[in-house]
Amino acid sequence: MDNSYVYIEEDDAEELTFRKIGRFLKKGWLRMVVYSLVALALAALVAVPIKVFYKTEPAAVTSIEFVYNGIEKGENPNGGSFDRNLIISPKVLTAAVAAAELTEKLTEITTLRAAMRVDAVPDAEYVKLVEEASNGNSALKDKLNGTTYYPTRFDIVISEPSALGLRDREAITLLEKVVECYFADFAERYSVTKMFSADVFNMSLRDPNAEYTDVYDLYVGAVNPVYDFVSLLESKSPSFISSKNNATFASLLGDYNIIKLSLDSFNNFILVNNIWKDVESAKKSLAEKKKQAENELTSLNAYVDSLKEQISNIKPQENTIITPTGTTTTTTYPDLYYQYQDKLNSAQLQVKTLTDRLNNIEMRIEKAAAAEEETSPELIAAAKTMLTGIESQAASFVNRVNSTVADYYETTVVSNSVRQVRPAMITMMDSNLNIVVILIAAFAVGLIIGGITTGVKISNAKYNRKRAVFTDEQKPDGVKPTEGKGE
After folding, report:
1. Quick check: 179 and 424 in contact, CB under 8 A?
2. DSSP assignment, residue 75?
3. Entry pTM
4. How far apart are alpha carbons 244 and 403 in whole angstroms?
5. SS3 for 168?
6. 368-413 pLDDT, tens per residue?
């Protein structure tokens, strides 16, 4: 007998409706939640032990910290950009390998450097800011977005020392030598040595025909910057005493005053006695210098006038506050006003300096015009004696300044700028599994599987509910049409 079934299908709309979504969630929410919790539990059982007990990378680690002013802004001691890669530069690593007596094992510095890294270690305050901003604090989130963080502490890491053929003790020794060699490189790179040149004070030998007025100008221009720099250091560290020469910055300023007095005495001597080696050449040179100074002064005065005009065009903002006790009016200027004012002050100071120089040139021109054609040899010899004494005195002063400044930077600045805050050790680095991400993903997978299972169940239930219609001839004995029951 031919058992064939004829189904009468219901007319179901294919479009997705809120009613269908509601029916789907009503039928399957419990299954989806159960599947998600099961997936979450399974993921936790697998991922958490891996995160806690499994360490992916044996490494040698040490930490250093920079404490000088400017590192918090990402600057090196000279004010340039700080470069963490210099910590494991080829120069540092070459010296460290030699100091650790590992040259036979580590023949390729590039291979060693590729196995090393320098990791920034954020401080607790920054970590707290990031955590609170990520928790939804909008004010801290804005603060974080407007903050450029520059770390001051760094981990120096050798990844898997065994891959380089190093035993644990050798890796620890190498890292300690890397720190030592970097400290030496840091001191060499940022120490101040021979900041000022003493070679300039030899004009009596280098150019015997130079006019004494020109030599005086040259020497004053050479010692004045020394005075300015030493004055700055004296204001910063008035109690510093050099261990090399027992000098203080105050004593160096006293030495400068003696040299300046000697130079002024020399200048007075040559002007009072109208001493010129070649008066006609001196007149021509002074005339050229006067013209140059006048041109510079004209240009500088024009610049001052333009600054004054720009400042006058900047209008202040007046704010009136009315209180029960009366009315208060405050006047504020924009930042541009103060920028122009600073430029104006600097330009006016230059005008004064240039004016003094021009007056000095004009006075020398008058002296040269009244000079005899040839200065007596006795006066020239006397001036030369004075000059050689000043040269010896000034050269000794500059060398003493260089020695004191170098000692100051070495003992006060450089040596205290970086320190090791964690000794070298072997550690096992944590697995980089992100537990939160894994658990969220597992929960999502559980939802998806629960949803798919629910969809299959609903489809099967719908199919079973479809009515099967049998013809009398085809209907088997004892078979009655039935309706399937949904879930």
Report:
1. yes
2. B
3. 0.59
4. 7
5. helix
6. 999 877 888 999 999 999 999 999 999 999 999 999 999 998 888 7
Distance, CA of 410 to CA of 482 (rounded, Å): 98
The three-class DSSP label of residue 97 is: helix
**Whole-number CA gyration radius for the chain:** 43
Across 94-145, where does the E strand assignment appear? 116-121
Q: How many residues does the chain have?
A: 487
Two tokens at 267? Answer: 């200048």
**Does residue 403 contact residue 148 with C-beta atoms inside 8 Å?**
no
- pLDDT of 405-458, one tens digit each? 999 988 887 878 999 999 999 887 555 556 677 777 777 787 788 778 777 776
Contact 218, 192 (CB under 8 A): no
Residue with tokens 């980089």: 432
Q: Which two tokens stand for residue 436?
A: 């939160």
Residues with Cβ within 8 Å of 205's Cβ and at least 6 positions away in sequence, in order, are none
- What span, in angstroms and rounded, lies between the C-alpha atoms of 51 and 434? 8
d(CA 304, CA 344): 6
Q: 418-430 and 55-66: which strand pairing?
A: antiparallel
